[in-house]
Amino acid sequence: MSIKRVAAILAAVAVLGVAGWRIYKVVNKPKKPSADVVAVKEGPIENTIDATGSVSPLNRVEIKPPISGRIEQLLVDEGARVKAGDVLAWMSSSDRAAILDAARAQGPDELKKWEDSYKPTPIVAPLSGVIILRNVVVGQTVDPTTVLYAMSDKLIVVAQVDESDVGRIKVGMPARITLDAFPDRADTGKVFEILAEGKNVSNVIQYGVKIAVDPVPAYFKSQMTANVSFIQERKTNAVLIPAAAVRESGGAKHVLLPGAEGEPPVSREIETGIESGESVEVVSGLQPGDKVLVSRNKYVPQQAAQTSPLTMGGRPTSPTGQAPKRKGK
User: Could you tell me the sign of the dihedral formed by the alpha carbons of 313, 316, 322, 325, in that order?
Assistant: First the structure.
């Protein structure tokens, strides 16, 4: 092969290498970040501590029969509100049940005679409240260990708070409660007790926090799952911007304002207050109606490849500068 032909081949390869390198740079050119222009506005903002819990009785009382026997009549059902001393049910002792069964076989007159002379035993409500469980049916044989009813004097919400957050919970703190069964309804209560003993749940220590809701909504039922937001701080007319608009540098926070037409954005330092998941309160530096830039995607510059993938004698490299591994090696 002649020297001229070799030189021509090398020149062609060099041209292809330069062209390929330019194409590679264009394809791998980092995209410029895009941003939206958002107006600063006024509105409510709050700082919350979120937890889950359940609706539970403040005091749960199980009602059991004083004697063994048979349930003759049930006067109340679940959900009924009763007063202390109300008769909830009637039962016969084992002896009375046996006598009445024998008298019933002899006829209605004999049965009435024994019913009048041998009175049934009443089951009485020990306190005022709501029946949350009826555990028996008429005709069932029971003994002093059988739970006939369970009742509650008042329903509350008990939230389970991680130990990392419980130090910020205070008695009297307001809380917003939403039940899984009624996600479109929200009720407000107040913390009235923080339990002193925690429980280990999946290697996380949690403390029970009791919340009173007054009045208790009619749709509250024991053991319903509740989502609780403890409100640490709340402002109704705060100056707000999206959290994505805030940048931090050198310990200071700032935002980017749109520049004049054809001009780059302008940075402005701000002082922030309450921060929620999506919004940030601006204490100073901005006014309602001002415009800020909110980045839609974060700009991450890529490192250039160390060697052109088409350069003679070189191995192509990835944007990280490392040569890709060959298959089978």
Answer: negative
